[in-house]
Design goal:
With 435 residues, the protein is an alpha/beta fold. The chain has 18 helices and 11 strands. α12 crosses α13.
Length: 435
């Protein structure tokens, strides 16, 4: 399928109709490992209304008539939000109303085809789901699809839809973006409303776009936020800071591709400096000492569910939730105090730079066969793919992953609230790297 921008141009020129595009997509997509559920009646009604607006010359903007999927963590009226879990799918009730972000999409004219699949409770960076099946990676079927927004990423990468909505608590937009050759954008915490979104860790959870281009991701981001479309401003060549400790721990093939991209950006005028940044990697020690914040908050939400229904759940998700079950409440309190203290100091420390730049993943996408072979292989791989992305959930700022080569991504991250600036910078980088 064409990009969202191309579709809208075709709609405006009368070469395509939103209704025929929606019908074609619904005919080709079936529920399964990639798509959790379809909403054909709703989609066709929205596409019909969009077609009428184009005929009358009053489209709502760059998402009007564009078909997309939303991750099955976001409520869609009339559907049970299953969150990749057979337990929640059985126990849940149909949503009485759309999530706030879904309402914003509909106001922008988007055609919501249905809900995309994910790994259970969104609690993994690999994208495996033993209940509904694991989506096949669109770049290399031997690789994991990346998670937790696995279905959203694979659907876009396969061309089923030009756009999809995912969530990101520790890397769940950016990791599947790398694994499938896409753009994935994690907004600042709180930028996109999370009302009506099944939580994993509420102080880390974000909702954001997956797309094939930065321009399409920007249009979807604005719609999710509920803001009218505005063009991205042109960015000047940026000042980029590369954390030396993280680059040193990166797999050679990934580091080579990243350094090649950095040189290309420097030739285009960027200033790129590599320096030690211990305040960033200090997050690892905090989590070793107190336990991961996501696990603490997931345990608060789902500990009871695991105790009652854990035998029906993915054992690997259960293990991650229960790893902090014996931690004293003081550990979570101390972790939250440390985060509140460190967050403003960190961004002040790097305020002389436009963004941090580093490989999205320190390794190539893990092999599906290997991570399915044993739980220990799964947890080693999961920890590795989350190692870079989770740092910017802890520090709350926006972060974007751009595809460099198959399985390798460039991540750019900025201070909280600088989402538009980071999008402009990403568009600048994309233009230089895709020449």
């Amino acid at each position: 399928m064409e990009s969202a921008a191309q579709l809208v141009a075709s709609f405006a020129g009368g070469r395509l109709s939103p209704l025929e595009v929606a019908k074609d997509a619904l005919e080709r997509i079936e529920p399964g490992p990639v798509v959790a559920a379809l909403t054909p009646e709703r989609a066709l009604a929205a596409a019909h209304d969009s077609a009428a607006r184009y005929r009358e010359g009053r489209p709502r903007g760059p998402l009007d008539g564009v078909p997309l999927l939303v991750k099955d963590l976001l409520d869609v009226e009339g559907l049970v939000t299953g969150a990749g879990s057979v337990v929640l799918a059985r126990l849940g009730r149909p949503a009485r109303e759309d999530a706030a972000a879904v309402r914003n999409l509909e106001r922008a004219g988007a055609v919501i085809l249905g809900k995309s699949q994910l790994n259970e409770l969104a609690f993994s960076g690999l994208g495996l789901n033993p209940h509904y099946g694991t989506p096949v990676n669109a770049l290399d079927p031997a690789w994991v699809p990346g998670g937790s927004s696995s279905g959203s990423a694979v659907a876009v990468a396969r061309g089923w839809v030009p756009l999809a909505v995912g969530t990101d608590t520790g890397g769940s937009l950016r990791i599947p973006a790398v694994c499938n050759g896409l753009v994935g954008f994690k907004p600042s915490w709180g930028a996109v409303p999370t009302a009506g979104v099944t939580p994993l860790a509420e102080s880390l959870d974000t909702v954001g776009p997956l797309a094939r281009t930065v321009a399409d991701a920007w249009s979807l981001f604005l719609a999710l936020v509920g803001e009218p479309f505005r063009p991205l401003p042109a960015a000047l060549p940026p000042r980029l800071l590369v954390p030396a400790e993280l680059l040193e721990r990166t797999e050679p093939a990934v580091r080579s591709a990243f350094e090649s991209a950095a040189r290309e950006l420097e030739r285009a005028g960027a200033r790129v400096e590599t320096t030690a940044l211990p305040s960033l990697t200090a997050v690892y020690e905090l989590y070793r000492r107190y336990g991961p914040l996501a696990s603490h908050e997931a345990y608060a939400s789902y500990g009871g569910l695991v105790r009652e229904h854990g035998a029906e759940m993915d054992r690997r998700v259960v293990r991650r939730i229960m790893e902090v079950a014996q931690c004293p409440p003081a550990d979570l309190q101390a972790l939250r105090r440390e985060r509140a203290r460190r967050l403003p100091r960190f961004w002040e420390e790097v305020s002389g730079w436009d963004a941090l730049a580093l490989p999205t993943l320190p390794v190539m996408p893990p092999l599906l066969e290997e991570v399915e072979a044993s739980d220990e292989a799964f947890f080693r791989a999961n920890g590795r793919v989350l190692a870079h992305t989770m740092l910017f959930n802890f520090y709350s700022g926006p972060a974007v992953s751009l595809p460099l080569s198959p399985g390798v991504g460039l991540m750019l991250a900025a201070a909280p609230g600088r989402d538009a600036d980071l999008f402009a910078l990403a568009a600048w980088a994309e233009g230089r790297l895709r020449r």
